[in-house]
Every structure is written in structure tokens, then in C-alpha cells.
């Protein structure tokens, strides 16, 4: 389960597969599991018996997209700066580009029928096998996929951050994303992502393209003001 934050442009190295999205290389399943764990843990709500619940797989996908695409995240932060006048949004977007994150930390996702896609079955099975997360059993008529985050998940996160402090990037990044997404529904969050023509118009089965240059130009314009 231990691993470093993403440091290559597209470590998933996906290629469109006939009849469905491409599958990530096996070597990256544990990295994906670590990232998913942070999302489920930090995006969860209180539940019974000292555990917590993360609501809706679609919401997890939408949050994951913003973690994996720093340029799209920066654009959301600039929108918050323009609409709310919050200088923290401008500073955070600037930090993303100052650290070259769109080049160094982007982990591409495939555009599929309902937007950005990542098959989380293998990462989720890794988390479940370690007793950190388990899917919530569906009841009759329930179509939403929720997840129980067990107390061991938070102890595990604290341990890996002590052993590999660089993994704290995941915590700070998911916390930053959560300031934008809060507990909004996955459908609502994905609706925002469809406002980007690059995302909306990407051909099914291909990687969603970067918007780095467009966002960087927007950042420079706002800084110039």
C-alpha cells in the first residue's frame, strides 16, 4: 500500500480498449488505492459504531478527477476567486503552476459515457482486504454505491505519512478539493466538469486532455489585474 504521489504525466498509461475504457497497468493499483483511500476518508461523514460513510461512487469519481487534473482544479480555484473574491483561491492556483503540477502530477482519466472514468474495483478490493474500507451493501431499490470507512483507515493514513511524509501531498490536495466540492452530489460536480469543452467533447475511450495553457493564461490575466 505504500507509494509515492504521482510524478509522471500519465502513469496510468491507458489505451482505449474495444468495447470499453482502457485498463490501468497493474503496477499502479496500489497508488490508486492510496489516492482513493484519502478521498473516501477525508470526504466521509460520521456514521454509526465509530465508522464513517462516503456517499456515492459518482461523487468519488468527480473528486478524483480534480485530484488527478491540477489544471482543472486550478481553473475551479480561479472561478472561486472571481465569484467570491477569495485570495486563497488565486494563491492556490498560482502554487499549482509554480510547482509545475499540470506536467508532473497529472494522472489522466478516460472519457466514457458518463464522463471521466476510472475502474475502482481493484483499488477498492485492496482497501477492503486491508480492513480499511468496505462497500455498503445495497438494499432493494438503492442504486447509489456508498462506502464505509473504518477506523483503521485513519490510523493507516497517519502511519504512512509518518513513514513517507511525501504522501502528505494527498491529504493537502484532497482537503483543498473538498473546499470546492464539499458534500455536493456527484451529478452536480460532474455537471461543472462538463462546462469545459475539452472534457465534454473528448471522444469516448480517449484520455481527457489538459487545459493547462488556457488556465495559465487566465491566471496571468487575473494576476495582472
Layout of strands and helices, then pairs:
Elements: H1 29-42, E1 45-46, E2 52-54, H2 57-68, H3 70-84, H4 87-98, H5 101-104, E3 110-112, E4 115-117, H6 121-129, E5 133-135, E6 147-149, H7 151-163, H8 168-181, H9 186-193, H10 197-200, H11 212-224
Antiparallel strand pairs: 1-2, 2-6, 3-4, 5-6
Helix pairs in contact: 1-6, 1-8, 2-3, 2-9, 3-4, 3-11, 4-11
How is this structure best described in words?
The chain is an alpha+beta fold. Helices cover 52% and strands 8% of the residues. The chain has a four-stranded antiparallel sheet. Strand 1 (45-46) and strand 2 form a beta hairpin. It is globular, with a radius of gyration of 17 Å. The termini are far apart. Residues 1-12 have a biased composition (Polar residues). Residues 1-26 are annotated as: Disordered.
Q: Low-confidence parts, pLDDT < 50 over ≥5 residues?
A: 2-26
Query: Helix count, per DSSP?
Result: 11
| Strand residue percentage | 5-15%
Q: What structural category do the secondary elements indicate?
A: alpha+beta
What is the H/E order? HEEHHHHEEHEEHHHHH
Strand order of the largest sheet: 1-2-6-5
Shape estimate: globular
Number of strands: 6
Radius of gyration: 17 Å
Amino- and carboxy-terminal Cα gap: 45 Å
Largest beta sheet, briefly? Answer: 4 strands, antiparallel
Helix content: 40-55%
**pLDDT average, as an integer?**
85
Amino acid at each position: 500500500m505504500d507509494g509515492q504521489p504521482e510524478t509522471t504525466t500519465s502513469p496510468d498509461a491507458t489505451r482505449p480498449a474495444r468495447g470499453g475504457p482502457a485498463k490501468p497497468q497493474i503496477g499502479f493499483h496500489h497508488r490508486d488505492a492510496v489516492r482513493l483511500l484519502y478521498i473516501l476518508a477525508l470526504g466521509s461523514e460520521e456514521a454509526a459504531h465509530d465508522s464513517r460513510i462516503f456517499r456515492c461512487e459518482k461523487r468519488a469519481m468527480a473528486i478524483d478527477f480534480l485530484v488527478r487534473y491540477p489544471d482543472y482544479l486550478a481553473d475551479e480555484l480561479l472561478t472561486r476567486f472571481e465569484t467570491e473574491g477569495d485570495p486563497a483561491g488565486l494563491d492556490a492556483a498560482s502554487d499549482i503552476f509554480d510547482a509545475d503540477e499540470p506536467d508532473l502530477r497529472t494522472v489522466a482519466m478516460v472519457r466514457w459515457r458518463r464522463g471521466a472514468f476510472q475502474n475502482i474495483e481493484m483499488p477498492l478490493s485492496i482497501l477492503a482486504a486491508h480492513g480499511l474500507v468496505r462497500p455498503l451493501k445495497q438494499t432493494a431499490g438503492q442504486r447509489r454505491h456508498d462506502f464505509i470507512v473504518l477506523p483503521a483507515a485513519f490510523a493507516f493514513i497517519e502511519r504512512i505519512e509518518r513513514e513517507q511524509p511525501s504522501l502528505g501531498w494527498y491529504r493537502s490536495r484532497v482537503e483543498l478539493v473538498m473546499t470546492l466540492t464539499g458534500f455536493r452530489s456527484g451529478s452536480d460536480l460532474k455537471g461543472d466538469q462538463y462546462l469545459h469543452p475539452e472534457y465534454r467533447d473528448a471522444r469516448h475511450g480517449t484520455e481527457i486532455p489538459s487545459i493547462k495553457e488556457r488556465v495559465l493564461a487566465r491566471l496571468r490575466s487575473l494576476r495582472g489585474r
